[in-house]
Amino acid sequence: MGWFWWSAVTLTTVGYGDNASVAKLGKATALILMFGGLLFILGLAARIASSLTVKQLTGNPDGFNELKDRAVGTIDKSGTEDFLLEHFF
Description:
Elements: H1 2-11, H2 24-57, H3 79-87
């Protein structure tokens, strides 16, 4: 269990200088707390990123037909320019 303990401590960036339990039950409890805290922070960051992304997507057009009324840009002499010229402009 020694290698697993040190790899988990390194992964969760808790550090080696902290006081650590030598009992297996104490190490198991610490592992649960470390990974639980890591998952909590990751979930919180994912939720924030997701909410920001959803807010940004609400102003986007639902389909190509809505692009006819908007100013759009593309790179000269590209496949996208050919597509837009053929279908819309």
